[in-house]
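In the previous chapter we treated chains in isolation. Here, by contrast, the input contains two separate entities that must be folded as one system, with a combined length of 550 residues.
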Amino acid sequence: MNPLCKKIRAEILKIATKSGHGHVPSCFSVVEILCAIYETIKHDPKNPKWEGRDIFILSKGHASLALYCVLANFGYFEIEKVYSFGGFMSDFGCHPDRTQAPGVEVSTGSLGHGIGLAVGIALGLRLKKHTSRRVYVVIGDGESNEGSVWEAVMVATNLKLDNLTVIYDNNLSHGRGLQIPNPAERFKAFGCDVAEVNGHDTEELKKEIIKTSHKVRAIIAHTQKGYGCRTFCLDHYEWHRKSPNAEECEILMDELDEEAI
Amino acid sequence: MRKQFKETIMDLAACDERICLLFGDVSVYLFEDFKNRYPERFYNVGICENTIVSMGAGLSSLGFIPFMHTITPFITERSFEQIKLDMCYNSFGGNIVSCGASFDYSWDGATHHCYTDLAILRLLPGMEVIQPGSTKELDCLLRSQYNNGKATYFRLSDYPHKIDVPVQFGKGVVLKNPGSKLTVMTAGPLLANVMEACRDLSVNVVYFHTLKPIDKELIREFQNTKILVIHDAFGLYEAVCEVPNLSVMYGGLPDKFCSCYGTLADARQSIGLDPQALRGLLQQKLSQI
């Protein structure tokens, strides 16, 4: 495991334990994706509203703790601040609020919204002729049960938004519910330029993130919900919205050290 | 009223390059001029109201002023969460402009009737809710509010009234004030029926084209009278009732779907909002005071 990604996972565990909040397995599936994005896109942690930046939206907002820890490690704020996660006066809510947390472009939480906003922003960048800027949005496979996701993809391809990259976190979180088999074929059928990658390989991810196309890009990132801790992977449903206690945290930290999957 | 919508937008867009239109396959032919003149600022997005609102919020985040337009129930009821979260919660302003509200599309049946839009949108923090009753009201309020940085709802009607009333955002208007103990409060195109019903009756008439913020100061002026809200939608009654210590009655919609077709006049008649039935209601209320 990439050392930075392991460090971020450890921080997620500690903060989830201390705060009693967080969707930890959902966070663990997107750590490499988020790191690869922030290592690749144009952004300025000291000036989050920089006019020349690319736009990143975490549409699956319940993975906010992963986003905060990644933003902290990329210099947006001190990680210590994130320990207030979910607290009454905290800037770091269990779903991200753009008016509170630096670096958060769009407030998300209710699934199936971020991608529609991303389509509007991509259109806006094209209208402004900001041709060097792109929009990246991470959606989940469970989130993609929402019809609004596919509505937005359909509109994006119809408008030929070649400045939009959709990253699909295929962590199979919804295997027990409405499954979406073969998402790559679906995105292709909607008119996207599709790539499939190992979503836990930052180098592979980065190669795909920097690519452009004359079509909407869709990167199917095959991930494992809870990646990095055997306990999560064995039963991610139990842990979906459960924070570890101190004893469990120790076990999970050991698992993380072993990189047991 | 949609024609006025187009004319006002054409005028505003000539001086404001931030204006961008996102339509749900409605009024597209009407806006042909706009589309030809500003092809990059007009999008017939498709029959996908959720995405239209989300896209508008996204455009707003970059400084554009979006107008999201299609049929009332679909852009308001279906897309309520997009308006709530993508626009209001995110503080991405823009203009939701609907057509076909209440029973404007009476012949299309209950799927196309919409009377909850004003009430539900009024509940959203930061939202402004406007029901212009005439083309003049639409023109004035569109010009004054389209660029306010807030989520703003304009409820158009294909059946505007022709009564000339003063127009100022957030201000109600007293149209009759004989000092009666009964005050009718109303909004929107239904004003025409109300004025006809009470033409020679001794009732006060107060009219609102802005439902949020509601003009509480004006309402308080009539707090010592019985207030009868006559409206072909929900929202105004609830807004009036925000003023404490009033005696308010509602003369409007029954708790059932309108499973009839026909014309707007037919629909209004079936629920007692035609001039004759309203006159009877007013006479009854006057006799009880």
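The longest helix of chain B spans residues 2-15. DSSP finds twelve helices and twelve strands in chain B. Compare these points with the single-chain example from earlier in the chapter.
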